[in-house]
Design brief:
By secondary structure, the protein is of the alpha/beta class. The protein has a single domain, classed as 3-Layer(aba) Sandwich (Rossmann fold). Helices cover 48% and strands 11% of the residues. The chain contains twelve helices and nine strands. It has helices at 30-48, 65-78, 101-111, 120-124, 128-135, 140-158, 170-183, 186-190, 211-221, 237-251, 255-269, 292-300; strands at residues 19-21, 26-28, 56-60, 85-92, 115-119, 163-165, 201-203, 278-279, 286-287. The chain has a five-stranded parallel beta sheet with strand order 5-4-3-6-7, sandwiched between helices. A two-stranded antiparallel ribbon has the order 1-2. Strand 8 and strand 9 (286-287) form a beta hairpin. Helix 6 (140-158) packs across helix 12 (292-300) and helix 7 packs across helix 10. The longest helix is centred in the N-terminal third of the chain and has 19 residues, at 30-48. The chain is globular and about 65 Å long.
Amino acid sequence: MFDWVGAMQCSKCRREAVVLQRYSGLHLCRDHFIADLEAKAKREIRQKRMIVSGDVIAVALSGGKDSSALLRFLTRTFGERRDVSILALTVDEGIAGYRHPEQAHQIAEACGVPWHCVTFQEIAGTTTDRIVEMRGDALSCTYCGVIRRHCLNTAARDLGATKLAMGMNLDDEAQSVLMNVLRGDAERLIRRPAPLPGVVRRIKPFAGVPEREVALYAHLTIGRFEEASCPYAHNALRSDVRAILNEYAWRHPATKYALKNLGDQVPEICNAGEADLQVCPECGEPFSGVCRSCQLIREARGG
């Protein structure tokens, strides 16, 4: 998952390197790698003004590498600040043999933060396994993604969070931009979301950090984390885009950064206004036209 290197010295000191950054050409030892990753995440936080005094940050903690690494980074960076609070929030989608909330609980305890868990069943009245039984698995990722976002926002709001920290990394951001291009979805490509009452602002401190580096950071600072993949993920368009992008980026290492920068710059270049969204009075989620969250939850329940 990550680029181990052997018998090479760190480009910044004489210790043994643990990783090669192909896009920068640097070999980095453990300490310089951790410092480099954390500097990237801190820069993303500063540039996007993600965290301010008084924030209560709910970290969406699945127990996987990305969310676990993010929780570790945030507690290392902000854990001693009295004006910022951090908690962990896990969503159990109801997929047999996949999600183990206790693993996330142990990681939260190791990071010294309160842990909360909500389920699809208690908030949406169904589970992903039940949705697949009723409707097949062709659109399982669509249903699961929408309901999971609804559960996270509802739970974070109820817990008094002002920010919802997501573990999306550079690969995720690049894939999202490319997916919008491949679908011809100009609206999503230029959309600039506006703050809405009742909707907890999402922040992504790892948006500028490659997935391989997040995985290595998790391995070095946490050790154990959930590594199983969702049994329904093979149906997602993102899986195809990930494979295409990884193959191309192997030959052109800066590609993912280029796509992320494109996604950041297009709304500015197009001078796009803030997205014309409303808050659904029924579920509290943002929508335009018809509330997609309510529609899919009704379908998932068999309505």
